[in-house]
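Inverse folding, one chain.
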C-alpha cells in the first residue's frame, strides 16, 4: 500500500511540474525592440563625445560607434548605407568631398569647433622663422587652405587675393622666409612634427598626440570659425526618427558639460 501511494504521489508531482513547464513556455516577451544607430567617427574627440551622447538617446535606441583614423572612409560608409551617420568633419570639408566624389552626404547638426593651431617642431619661434623652414600642413583641400590661412594671419606667408578656403601652396603670393610647405595626410602630421620646423595640426589629431592647442601651440585660430564639426547622414535620412534621436543625444546638456569640462578649450561646444 505504501509503495502504491508513493508511485501515485510521484506521478502527481511529475504532472504538476510538466504543467508548470508548459505554462512557462507559452510566455512571450513584450519588451520593445531597440533600434541601433551606427555612427562612424574619429577616435578623439568625436568617439569620446558620442560615448556621452549614447547615454542620452531616447528610449528604444542604442548607439554603436565605429572608429576610423582617416577622413575618407567615414563618408564612404555612410554613402553606401553601411553606416547611418558620421561625426568627424566640418562643412567646408563636406562640401568639397561631395563635389570631388559625387557623394550625397548632408549635415544633420553642429556640435563643436576644434581650433586649428601651429605647433613647434625643430623651431619654436614664429617671430624668428629660419630661412627655408619646413612647415607641415594637412594635404586635403579644405584643411590645407585652413592651415595656410592661419599661417597668413600670423605673418608667415601671404596668399593670392581671393584664395580663400580652397587655397593650396600654389596660391602663396609672398613668402619672405622661403618656407617650404610639406603636405601630409592630416592624421600623419603629428608624427612628422619633430622632422619639420613647424606643424599645423587639426585639433582632433593634436589631442590624440597629447597636445592642447590652447596651452601648447604657437598660434591658434580665433573663436569665430566656419569649421564647426557636424554630424552627417546620407541625403534622405535627415528627417528620420533615428536622425532626430541622434540629434537630441549629441546636443544634450550632458554633452555640452562634457565638452566644456574635458578638453580645456581645445574643443568648444557650439550649441
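Residues assigned per position:
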Amino acid at each position: 500500500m505504501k509503495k502504491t501511494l508513493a508511485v501515485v504521489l510521484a506521478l502527481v508531482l511529475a504532472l504538476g511540474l510538466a504543467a508548470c513547464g508548459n505554462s512557462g513556455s507559452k510566455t512571450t516577451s513584450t519588451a520593445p525592440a531597440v533600434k541601433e544607430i551606427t555612427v562612424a567617427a574619429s577616435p578623439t574627440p568625436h568617439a569620446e563625445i558620442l560615448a556621452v551622447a549614447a547615454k542620452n538617446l531616447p528610449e528604444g535606441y542604442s548607439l554603436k560607434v565605429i572608429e576610423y583614423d582617416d577622413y575618407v572612409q567615414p563618408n564612404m560608409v555612410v554613402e553606401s548605407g553601411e553606416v547611418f551617420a558620421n561625426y568627424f568633419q566640418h562643412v567646408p570639408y563636406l562640401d568639397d568631398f561631395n563635389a570631388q566624389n559625387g557623394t550625397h552626404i548632408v549635415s544633420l547638426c553642429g556640435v563643436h569647433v576644434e581650433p586649428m593651431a601651429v605647433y613647434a617642431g625643430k623651431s619654436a619661434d614664429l617671430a624668428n622663422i629660419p630661412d627655408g623652414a619646413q612647415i607641415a600642413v594637412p594635404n586635403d583641400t579644405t584643411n590645407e587652405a585652413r592651415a595656410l590661412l592661419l599661417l597668413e594671419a600670423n605673418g608667415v606667408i601671404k596668399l593670392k587675393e581671393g584664395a580663400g578656403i580652397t587655397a593650396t601652396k600654389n596660391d602663396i603670393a609672398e613668402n619672405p622666409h622661403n618656407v617650404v610647405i610639406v603636405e601630409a595626410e592630416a592624421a600623419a602630421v603629428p608624427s612628422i612634427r619633430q622632422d619639420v620646423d613647424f606643424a599645423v595640426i587639426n585639433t582632433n589629431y593634436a589631442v590624440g598626440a597629447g597636445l592642447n592647442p590652447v596651452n601648447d601651440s604657437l598660434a591658434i585660430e580665433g573663436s569665430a570659425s566656419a569649421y564647426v564639426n557636424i554630424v552627417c547622414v546620407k541625403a534622405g535620412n535627415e528627417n528620420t526618427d533615428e536622425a532626430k534621436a541622434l540629434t537630441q543625444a549629441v546636443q544634450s546638456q550632458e554633452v555640452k558639460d562634457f565638452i566644456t569640462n574635458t578638453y580645456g578649450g581645445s574643443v568648444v561646444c557650439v550649441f
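The two ends are 84 Å apart (CA to CA). The chain has a mean pLDDT of 89.
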